Hints:
The structure is a single chain. By secondary structure, this protein is mostly helical. 85% of the residues lie in helices and 3% in strands. The chain has seven helices and two strands; from the N terminus they run ααααααββα. It has helices at 2-21, 26-69, 73-93, 95-119, 123-161, 170-183, 196-221; strands at 187-189, 192-194. A two-stranded antiparallel sheet has the order 1-2. A hairpin with a 2-residue loop joins strand 1 and strand 2. Helix 1 runs antiparallel to helix 2 (26-69), helix 1 (2-21) runs antiparallel to helix 5 (123-161) and helix 5 (123-161) runs antiparallel to helix 6. The longest helix is centred in the N-terminal third of the chain and has 44 residues, at 26-69.
Amino acid sequence: GFAMLGCWAAIVLIEITTTVVDVHSSEATLHTGAFIVCSTVLLCLAWCLAYICHGLAVVVDSFCVRMFSDPDVRRILHEWNVVTAVVHKASTGIQSGFVALQASTVLAIPALLSDFTELGVELRTVSALLPGTIVVVCVVRLLFIAGTVTDRCRRMPALVNSLSFGRGKESARQHIVEYMNNSASGFYMLEVRISSGGALILLYVWIAVTCLILTLPHARVL
């Protein structure tokens, strides 16, 4: 929450500073006001979705605590079904806003890289593109926060496998491990399970493709 608030304050400060430099330009003032309003809406939505994702992570962590305190096989299976249902229901419930935010990032990254390529490395260019970059980073960070929910669920079978349920309960423990593996619990967006590793690969591929597209005109000239 404080990190998101700090990013919003930095965006507002940079935009106002830029407007003060171009105080005689009404177009610059209008652009600043519109950007502050849009960035505020995006960051508020990102903060709300991140708050929900953190809540889902707490749900999984609470399940771990209860499992350690009372390692009963039937109770673990029942509560794991509840955790899986809660995480899946919550993730599918917010997927519309999640997809909208990530779609804006998909469009914003090529635009930022294109502007940076055209304007060059200058102090004025950095100050102009920094607010948009901060918004993109906050939205992309949301993808990794959602991925941590899936990462917790994926590590759960290994955690259960390390527990001791007493003598003669090895088969029951193995049944829980297989059940958790087959449940494929995690954060889903459009029926695709999101993980931190998958988010990192997606971000890397998209930046690489964008850089390739931006360098094609220069390659043709050469």
